[in-house]
Design goal:
By secondary structure, the protein is mainly alpha-helical. It is 70% helix and 0% strand. α4 runs antiparallel to α9 and α10 runs antiparallel to α14. The radius of gyration is 19 Å and the shape is globular.
Length: 266
């Protein structure tokens, strides 16, 4: 337990150093504004469609934004605090820099995850969280302890799940020695899927984003339980177990990759 606490403390010290380095550059505030603009304008197309054509049955723009924002917030947190593994194939494997990590008596995943931190990525999760509370307020949802627990579980489960996606990508890069473009189906494309109401998602995609990558369990079902949309409430409590299961499977792939790592030479 003492070693785990020490490793986590080291991770946050590394993130703190990266944070201070980011603020040294004079243009860091402009980078924040740039990302904020992109994040805010991303769901504009959905909002405009609803303004032009109205609700889709019982699905209003507030409901869609809630589900979408939960997924984006989870992805944004993982992208902010696990960015090192997103860049891992290029920064560590292809350059051979992973050899240095092997020499240090610290967990490899934490070392890799804390190797990169971009301050300008933070507006994504913060804006998404603001959208979550805006949507709940617009729907008149009472923020009870139960709803807070479901919301926290969804965010934590989603964060762990997307960390698993980055870990999976890094584990596979030991064999491919480069990034995998198709993996973006599990990142940026995954939270775009939930712009569509769950009943209208094709069965194949619904199965993929429920059991292969549990995006619906960390976004739609928690939102349905909090707002009372008539779906089984127990599905909302699967966010954290589903995210943790996906992460553990990704760690297995990572460990297999580490065992087969032979460096890139010089």
């Amino acid at each position: 337990m003492k070693n785990i606490v020490s490793d986590i403390g080291l991770y946050f010290r590394m993130i703190k150093l990266h944070f201070r380095c980011c603020t040294v550059y004079r243009g860091w505030s402009l980078m924040l504004l740039q990302t904020l603009f992109v994040v805010v304008t991303d769901p504009i197309s959905v909002i405009l469609l609803f303004l032009r054509f109205g609700d889709i049955g019982e699905w209003s723009v507030e409901k869609i934004i809630l589900v979408y924002a939960l997924a984006v917030a989870s992805f944004g947190l993982a992208e902010s605090f696990f960015r090192g593994l997103d860049y891992f194939p290029w920064r560590m494997v292809r350059t051979g820099n992973f050899d240095r990590l092997l020499l240090r008596p610290r967990p490899l995943i934490l070392q890799a995850a804390s190797s990169v931190f971009h301050l300008h990525r933070l507006p994504r999760p913060l804006t998404a969280l603001a959208a979550v509370f805006w949507s709940l307020s617009r729907q008149g949802v009472v923020f009870t302890a139960r709803n807070a627990l479901i919301l926290l579980s969804a965010l934590l489960g989603g964060f762990i799940m997307y960390c698993g996606v980055f870990t999976l990508t890094s584990g596979l890069s030991f064999f491919t020695v480069k990034g995998l473009d198709w993996i973006y189906i599990l990142t940026n494309a995954s939270y775009q899927v939930v712009r569509c109401p769950e009943p209208y998602i094709p069965r194949t995609l619904k199965g993929m984003f429920s059991f292969l990558l549990p995006v619906l369990f960390i976004s739609f079902y928690p939102a349905a339980a909090i707002c009372g949309w008539g779906y089984p409430a127990w599905k909302a409590y699967l966010a954290l177990p589903a995210g943790a299961t996906f992460f553990m499977l990704s760690v297995i792939v990572w460990k297999i990759g580490v065992r087969h790592y032979t460096s890139t030479g010089s």
